Amino acid sequence: MSTQAVTNLETQIVSQPDELSRVLTSGTTREQVHAAVEALQRANRLWLVGTGTSHHAAILGAGMLQDAGRSAVAVPSMRFVVWAPIIGPDDAIVVITHTGETAYALAARALATTAGIDVVTITKRGAGFPRSIETCEKETAETYTVSYTTALMVLGMIAAEMGSETITEDSLALVPGAVRNAIETSGIEAIAAPERELVIAGAGPAAITAREGALKLREGARVLAEGFDVEHLLHGSAVPLDPRDAVVALTPPDTDGFVEAVSSAAASEGIPTYRIQEPTPLPTLLAQIPLTVRLQVLALRFALERGQDPDTVITGNWATERLWTIGRPDR
User: Fold this and answer.
1) Pair (129, 230) in one structural domain
2) Cα dihedral across residues 83, 143, 215, 264: positive or negative
3) What's the pTM?
4) What is the C-alpha separation between 99 and 204, in angstroms, rounded?
5) pLDDT digit string (tens) for 286-304?
Protein backbone atom coordinates (compact mmCIF):
# COMPACT_ATOMS: atom_id res chain seq x y z
CA MET A 1 0.00 0.00 0.00
CA SER A 2 1.16 3.54 -0.65
CA THR A 3 2.49 5.75 2.13
CA GLN A 4 -0.18 8.32 1.28
CA ALA A 5 -3.67 7.25 0.28
CA VAL A 6 -4.74 8.50 -3.15
CA THR A 7 -8.33 7.24 -3.00
CA ASN A 8 -10.98 7.04 -0.34
CA LEU A 9 -11.02 3.29 -0.90
CA GLU A 10 -7.41 3.02 0.18
CA THR A 11 -8.16 5.14 3.25
CA GLN A 12 -11.02 2.80 4.16
CA ILE A 13 -8.96 -0.34 3.58
CA VAL A 14 -6.06 0.78 5.76
CA SER A 15 -8.46 1.94 8.51
CA GLN A 16 -9.72 -1.61 9.10
CA PRO A 17 -7.27 -2.88 11.75
CA ASP A 18 -7.95 0.13 13.98
CA GLU A 19 -11.69 0.09 13.31
CA LEU A 20 -11.91 -3.62 14.10
CA SER A 21 -10.00 -3.08 17.34
CA ARG A 22 -12.27 -0.18 18.26
CA VAL A 23 -15.42 -2.22 17.63
CA LEU A 24 -14.05 -5.14 19.64
CA THR A 25 -13.05 -3.06 22.66
CA SER A 26 -15.71 -0.33 22.66
CA GLY A 27 -17.85 -0.37 25.78
CA THR A 28 -20.77 1.08 23.81
CA THR A 29 -20.53 -1.60 21.14
CA ARG A 30 -20.33 -4.33 23.76
CA GLU A 31 -23.46 -2.96 25.44
CA GLN A 32 -25.24 -2.97 22.08
CA VAL A 33 -24.09 -6.52 21.38
CA HIS A 34 -25.22 -7.70 24.82
CA ALA A 35 -28.67 -6.13 24.35
CA ALA A 36 -28.95 -7.80 20.96
CA VAL A 37 -27.94 -11.17 22.37
CA GLU A 38 -30.59 -10.93 25.08
CA ALA A 39 -33.21 -10.57 22.35
CA LEU A 40 -31.74 -13.22 20.06
CA GLN A 41 -31.34 -15.79 22.84
CA ARG A 42 -35.12 -15.79 23.30
CA ALA A 43 -35.77 -16.51 19.62
CA ASN A 44 -36.61 -19.86 18.10
CA ARG A 45 -35.00 -19.15 14.73
CA LEU A 46 -32.76 -16.31 13.55
CA TRP A 47 -33.10 -14.71 10.12
CA LEU A 48 -30.22 -12.61 8.82
CA VAL A 49 -31.20 -10.19 6.07
CA GLY A 50 -29.07 -8.00 3.79
CA THR A 51 -28.44 -6.85 0.23
CA GLY A 52 -25.25 -7.29 -1.81
CA THR A 53 -22.22 -7.01 0.46
CA SER A 54 -24.58 -7.05 3.46
CA HIS A 55 -26.04 -10.33 2.23
CA HIS A 56 -22.54 -11.80 2.13
CA ALA A 57 -22.13 -10.68 5.74
CA ALA A 58 -25.50 -12.25 6.55
CA ILE A 59 -24.42 -15.62 5.12
CA LEU A 60 -21.16 -15.70 7.08
CA GLY A 61 -22.98 -14.37 10.14
CA ALA A 62 -25.52 -17.18 9.91
CA GLY A 63 -22.62 -19.62 9.88
CA MET A 64 -21.21 -18.00 13.01
CA LEU A 65 -24.56 -18.27 14.80
CA GLN A 66 -24.92 -21.88 13.67
CA ASP A 67 -21.50 -22.45 15.23
CA ALA A 68 -23.07 -21.19 18.44
CA GLY A 69 -25.74 -23.87 18.14
CA ARG A 70 -28.52 -21.67 16.80
CA SER A 71 -30.90 -22.15 13.89
CA ALA A 72 -29.86 -19.26 11.63
CA VAL A 73 -30.65 -18.60 7.97
CA ALA A 74 -29.48 -15.81 5.65
CA VAL A 75 -32.01 -14.34 3.21
CA PRO A 76 -31.58 -11.53 0.63
CA SER A 77 -33.57 -8.45 1.61
CA MET A 78 -35.87 -8.37 -1.41
CA ARG A 79 -36.64 -12.07 -1.11
CA PHE A 80 -37.48 -11.59 2.57
CA VAL A 81 -39.90 -8.76 1.77
CA VAL A 82 -41.52 -9.96 -1.45
CA TRP A 83 -41.29 -13.74 -1.05
CA ALA A 84 -41.05 -13.90 2.72
CA PRO A 85 -40.32 -17.25 4.35
CA ILE A 86 -42.71 -18.42 7.04
CA ILE A 87 -41.68 -16.41 10.09
CA GLY A 88 -42.92 -17.44 13.51
CA PRO A 89 -43.75 -15.06 16.37
CA ASP A 90 -40.83 -16.49 18.34
CA ASP A 91 -38.30 -15.79 15.58
CA ALA A 92 -35.95 -12.80 15.42
CA ILE A 93 -34.48 -10.83 12.52
CA VAL A 94 -30.99 -9.39 12.13
CA VAL A 95 -31.01 -6.71 9.41
CA ILE A 96 -27.61 -5.68 8.04
CA THR A 97 -27.43 -2.36 6.18
CA HIS A 98 -24.10 -0.55 5.94
CA THR A 99 -25.67 2.76 4.95
CA GLY A 100 -28.90 2.54 6.91
CA GLU A 101 -30.59 3.50 3.64
CA THR A 102 -30.87 0.30 1.56
CA ALA A 103 -34.46 0.11 0.32
CA TYR A 104 -35.38 -3.54 0.82
CA ALA A 105 -33.32 -3.85 4.02
CA LEU A 106 -35.38 -0.99 5.48
CA ALA A 107 -38.54 -2.66 4.19
CA ALA A 108 -37.54 -5.94 5.85
CA ARG A 109 -36.93 -4.11 9.09
CA ALA A 110 -40.29 -2.31 8.89
CA LEU A 111 -42.12 -5.52 8.01
CA ALA A 112 -40.69 -7.40 10.98
CA THR A 113 -41.26 -4.50 13.36
CA THR A 114 -44.88 -4.17 12.29
CA ALA A 115 -45.35 -7.90 12.87
CA GLY A 116 -44.03 -7.53 16.43
CA ILE A 117 -40.92 -9.62 15.79
CA ASP A 118 -37.65 -8.75 17.54
CA VAL A 119 -35.34 -6.88 15.15
CA VAL A 120 -31.63 -6.21 15.58
CA THR A 121 -30.02 -3.85 13.06
CA ILE A 122 -26.30 -3.81 12.27
CA THR A 123 -25.57 -0.48 10.64
CA LYS A 124 -23.42 2.64 10.43
CA ARG A 125 -22.65 4.90 13.35
CA GLY A 126 -25.32 7.52 14.00
CA ALA A 127 -28.13 5.69 12.20
CA GLY A 128 -30.26 5.89 15.33
CA PHE A 129 -32.31 2.74 14.90
CA PRO A 130 -33.72 1.17 18.07
CA ARG A 131 -31.86 -1.98 19.19
CA SER A 132 -29.04 -1.45 16.74
CA ILE A 133 -25.35 -2.25 16.77
CA GLU A 134 -23.38 0.53 15.13
CA THR A 135 -20.12 -0.35 13.41
CA CYS A 136 -18.32 2.51 11.63
CA GLU A 137 -18.98 5.83 9.95
CA LYS A 138 -20.65 5.74 6.54
CA GLU A 139 -17.93 4.96 4.04
CA THR A 140 -16.52 7.60 1.72
CA ALA A 141 -15.91 5.05 -1.06
CA GLU A 142 -18.82 3.26 -2.70
CA THR A 143 -16.68 0.13 -2.85
CA TYR A 144 -17.59 -0.94 0.69
CA THR A 145 -14.84 -2.51 2.78
CA VAL A 146 -14.58 -1.47 6.44
CA SER A 147 -18.35 -1.57 6.97
CA TYR A 148 -18.28 -5.21 5.84
CA THR A 149 -15.42 -6.36 8.03
CA THR A 150 -16.73 -4.51 11.10
CA ALA A 151 -20.17 -6.05 10.55
CA LEU A 152 -18.51 -9.48 10.51
CA MET A 153 -16.69 -8.59 13.72
CA VAL A 154 -19.99 -7.67 15.36
CA LEU A 155 -21.56 -10.92 14.20
CA GLY A 156 -18.58 -12.78 15.63
CA MET A 157 -19.03 -10.98 18.94
CA ILE A 158 -22.68 -12.03 18.99
CA ALA A 159 -21.73 -15.64 18.26
CA ALA A 160 -19.07 -15.61 20.98
CA GLU A 161 -21.52 -14.29 23.57
CA MET A 162 -24.08 -16.88 22.49
CA GLY A 163 -21.66 -19.69 23.26
CA SER A 164 -19.67 -20.53 20.13
CA GLU A 165 -16.81 -22.87 20.98
CA THR A 166 -14.57 -21.71 18.11
CA ILE A 167 -15.46 -18.02 17.80
CA THR A 168 -14.27 -16.78 21.17
CA GLU A 169 -12.90 -13.62 22.73
CA ASP A 170 -9.39 -14.97 22.17
CA SER A 171 -9.93 -15.71 18.48
CA LEU A 172 -11.71 -12.38 17.88
CA ALA A 173 -8.75 -10.57 19.41
CA LEU A 174 -6.51 -12.02 16.65
CA VAL A 175 -8.56 -10.56 13.81
CA PRO A 176 -7.25 -6.95 13.73
CA GLY A 177 -3.64 -8.17 13.57
CA ALA A 178 -4.50 -10.66 10.83
CA VAL A 179 -6.12 -7.86 8.84
CA ARG A 180 -3.10 -5.62 9.32
CA ASN A 181 -0.89 -8.42 8.00
CA ALA A 182 -3.24 -8.93 5.03
CA ILE A 183 -2.87 -5.26 4.11
CA GLU A 184 0.90 -5.14 4.56
CA THR A 185 1.63 -8.54 2.98
CA SER A 186 -1.35 -9.17 0.73
CA GLY A 187 0.17 -11.89 -1.47
CA ILE A 188 -1.66 -10.62 -4.54
CA GLU A 189 1.25 -8.98 -6.34
CA ALA A 190 1.60 -11.68 -9.02
CA ILE A 191 -2.07 -11.67 -10.00
CA ALA A 192 -2.56 -10.03 -13.40
CA ALA A 193 -5.83 -8.70 -14.77
CA PRO A 194 -7.04 -11.19 -17.41
CA GLU A 195 -8.07 -10.35 -20.95
CA ARG A 196 -11.58 -11.56 -20.25
CA GLU A 197 -12.87 -12.81 -16.86
CA LEU A 198 -11.37 -13.27 -13.41
CA VAL A 199 -12.88 -16.27 -11.62
CA ILE A 200 -12.50 -16.50 -7.85
CA ALA A 201 -13.33 -19.83 -6.22
CA GLY A 202 -13.43 -21.24 -2.72
CA ALA A 203 -15.16 -23.89 -0.63
CA GLY A 204 -17.71 -23.35 2.12
CA PRO A 205 -17.27 -19.91 3.73
CA ALA A 206 -14.52 -19.03 1.24
CA ALA A 207 -17.09 -19.29 -1.56
CA ILE A 208 -18.83 -16.29 0.03
CA THR A 209 -15.50 -14.50 0.23
CA ALA A 210 -15.04 -15.28 -3.47
CA ARG A 211 -18.36 -13.59 -4.23
CA GLU A 212 -17.51 -10.59 -2.09
CA GLY A 213 -14.07 -10.27 -3.67
CA ALA A 214 -15.55 -10.46 -7.16
CA LEU A 215 -18.02 -7.73 -6.24
CA LYS A 216 -15.19 -5.46 -5.09
CA LEU A 217 -13.32 -6.05 -8.36
CA ARG A 218 -16.42 -5.28 -10.39
CA GLU A 219 -17.22 -2.14 -8.42
CA GLY A 220 -13.80 -0.72 -7.75
CA ALA A 221 -11.83 -1.74 -10.85
CA ARG A 222 -14.55 -2.42 -13.44
CA VAL A 223 -13.03 -5.86 -13.95
CA LEU A 224 -15.36 -8.65 -15.07
CA ALA A 225 -15.10 -10.98 -12.08
CA GLU A 226 -17.25 -13.74 -10.68
CA GLY A 227 -17.12 -15.64 -7.42
CA PHE A 228 -17.89 -19.35 -7.26
CA ASP A 229 -18.32 -22.20 -4.89
CA VAL A 230 -15.59 -24.51 -6.22
CA GLU A 231 -18.04 -27.40 -6.64
CA HIS A 232 -20.32 -25.18 -8.72
CA LEU A 233 -17.34 -24.08 -10.80
CA LEU A 234 -16.40 -27.67 -11.60
CA HIS A 235 -19.94 -28.75 -12.44
CA GLY A 236 -20.22 -26.88 -15.71
CA SER A 237 -19.32 -23.28 -14.96
CA ALA A 238 -15.64 -23.78 -15.85
CA VAL A 239 -16.48 -25.06 -19.34
CA PRO A 240 -16.09 -21.73 -21.25
CA LEU A 241 -12.87 -20.70 -19.48
CA ASP A 242 -9.69 -20.47 -21.55
CA PRO A 243 -6.26 -18.76 -21.36
CA ARG A 244 -7.92 -15.34 -21.76
CA ASP A 245 -9.37 -15.83 -18.27
CA ALA A 246 -7.76 -16.36 -14.87
CA VAL A 247 -8.63 -18.35 -11.76
CA VAL A 248 -7.90 -17.30 -8.18
CA ALA A 249 -8.31 -20.06 -5.59
CA LEU A 250 -8.98 -19.16 -1.96
CA THR A 251 -8.13 -21.08 1.20
CA PRO A 252 -8.98 -21.92 3.91
CA PRO A 253 -10.87 -24.16 3.88
CA ASP A 254 -9.79 -27.03 1.65
CA THR A 255 -10.34 -30.01 3.90
CA ASP A 256 -10.39 -32.64 1.13
CA GLY A 257 -8.12 -30.96 -1.41
CA PHE A 258 -10.97 -30.09 -3.78
CA VAL A 259 -9.92 -26.44 -4.23
CA GLU A 260 -6.35 -27.42 -5.05
CA ALA A 261 -7.49 -30.16 -7.45
CA VAL A 262 -9.73 -27.77 -9.40
CA SER A 263 -6.97 -25.14 -9.43
CA SER A 264 -4.51 -27.66 -10.85
CA ALA A 265 -7.01 -28.67 -13.52
CA ALA A 266 -7.41 -25.01 -14.54
CA ALA A 267 -3.65 -24.58 -14.76
CA SER A 268 -3.39 -27.74 -16.87
CA GLU A 269 -5.90 -26.18 -19.29
CA GLY A 270 -3.55 -23.24 -19.77
CA ILE A 271 -5.64 -20.88 -17.66
CA PRO A 272 -3.51 -18.52 -15.51
CA THR A 273 -4.12 -19.73 -11.96
CA TYR A 274 -3.28 -18.06 -8.67
CA ARG A 275 -3.73 -18.99 -5.03
CA ILE A 276 -4.49 -16.72 -2.07
CA GLN A 277 -4.17 -18.30 1.35
CA GLU A 278 -4.92 -16.79 4.74
CA PRO A 279 -2.11 -18.11 6.98
CA THR A 280 -3.37 -16.79 10.31
CA PRO A 281 -4.59 -19.62 12.60
CA LEU A 282 -8.11 -18.25 12.91
CA PRO A 283 -11.32 -20.29 12.91
CA THR A 284 -12.38 -20.72 9.30
CA LEU A 285 -15.28 -18.26 9.49
CA LEU A 286 -13.14 -15.53 11.06
CA ALA A 287 -10.33 -16.24 8.59
CA GLN A 288 -12.65 -14.93 5.89
CA ILE A 289 -12.18 -11.40 7.25
CA PRO A 290 -8.46 -11.02 6.44
CA LEU A 291 -8.91 -13.20 3.34
CA THR A 292 -11.50 -10.70 2.09
CA VAL A 293 -9.12 -7.83 2.82
CA ARG A 294 -6.52 -9.39 0.49
CA LEU A 295 -9.10 -9.24 -2.30
CA GLN A 296 -9.96 -5.65 -1.39
CA VAL A 297 -6.28 -4.77 -1.89
CA LEU A 298 -6.37 -6.55 -5.26
CA ALA A 299 -9.41 -4.51 -6.32
CA LEU A 300 -7.65 -1.30 -5.32
CA ARG A 301 -4.50 -2.28 -7.22
CA PHE A 302 -6.44 -3.12 -10.38
CA ALA A 303 -8.43 0.14 -10.11
CA LEU A 304 -5.25 2.21 -9.95
CA GLU A 305 -3.58 0.25 -12.75
CA ARG A 306 -6.65 0.65 -14.97
CA GLY A 307 -7.20 4.31 -14.13
CA GLN A 308 -10.61 3.64 -12.59
CA ASP A 309 -12.27 5.61 -9.78
CA PRO A 310 -13.05 3.08 -7.01
CA ASP A 311 -14.81 5.71 -4.89
CA THR A 312 -17.68 6.52 -7.24
CA VAL A 313 -19.15 3.24 -8.38
CA ILE A 314 -22.80 3.75 -9.32
CA THR A 315 -22.99 6.11 -12.29
CA GLY A 316 -25.10 6.82 -15.36
CA ASN A 317 -28.54 5.25 -15.56
CA TRP A 318 -27.55 2.81 -12.82
CA ALA A 319 -27.68 5.82 -10.46
CA THR A 320 -31.27 6.79 -11.31
CA GLU A 321 -32.92 7.63 -8.00
CA ARG A 322 -36.04 5.63 -8.75
CA LEU A 323 -34.02 2.41 -8.99
CA TRP A 324 -32.66 2.94 -5.49
CA THR A 325 -36.00 3.81 -3.86
CA ILE A 326 -38.06 0.88 -5.18
CA GLY A 327 -39.18 -1.14 -2.18
CA ARG A 328 -38.57 1.54 0.46
CA PRO A 329 -41.23 1.39 3.18
CA ASP A 330 -41.81 5.17 3.00
CA ARG A 331 -42.61 5.23 -0.72
Assistant:
1) no
2) negative
3) 0.95
4) 27
5) 999 999 999 999 999 999 9
